């Protein structure tokens, strides 16, 4: 993928996440992921976007992919927080479905 195009796609996805339009960000990030499946930044951003749209399973999977591809020694506190929130959301969704 052309470096400038990739940077533009990342910038647009980041913009959408920052301005509370995570579904639009997900579309761009999923496209980048298909082109660069081993890019940890894509998985990090997707994990956060999925968390924002209450898709905890996908958020957890993306967090795990991030951990798989990230370089050793990288600060992973943010992704651990995202995954923790996704796990909590999954638990809440399961409890809510049981109550129905």
Features:
5 helices; 0% strand; mainly alpha; 100 residues
Count of helical stretches: 5
The span between the termini is: 47 Å
Taking the sheet with the most strands, its summary is:
none
Instruction: Determine the structural class based on helices, strands and strand pairing.
Output: mainly alpha
Number of strands: 0
Low-confidence stretches: none
From N to C, what is the helix and strand string?
HHHHH
Portion of residues in beta strands equals under 5%
- Measured on Cα atoms, how large is the radius of gyration? 14 Å
| Helix fraction bin | over 70%
Based on Cα principal axes, name the global outline: globular
Account of the protein in words:
With 100 residues, the chain is mainly α. Helices cover 80% and strands 0% of the residues. The chain has helices at 3-18, 22-35, 40-52, 56-69, 77-99. Helix 3 (40-52) packs parallel to helix 5.
What is the element layout, followed by pairings?
Blueprint: H1 3-18, H2 22-35, H3 40-52, H4 56-69, H5 77-99
Question: Brief description of this entry?
Answer:
By secondary structure, the chain is mostly helical. Helix content is 80%, strand content 0%. α2 packs antiparallel against α3, α3 runs antiparallel to α4 and α3 packs parallel to α5.
């Amino acid at each position: 993928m052309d470096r400038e195009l990739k940077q533009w796609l990342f910038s647009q996805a980041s913009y959408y996440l920052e301005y509370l339009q995570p579904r639009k960000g997900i579309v761009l990030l999923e496209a980048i992921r298909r082109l660069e499946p081993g890019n940890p930044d894509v998985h990090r951003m997707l994990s956060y976007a999925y968390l924002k749209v209450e898709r905890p399973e996908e958020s957890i999977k993306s967090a795990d992919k991030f951990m798989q591809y990230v370089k050793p020694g990288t600060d992973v506190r943010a992704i651990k927080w995202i995954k923790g929130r996704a796990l909590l959301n999954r638990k809440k969704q399961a409890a809510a479905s049981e109550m129905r």
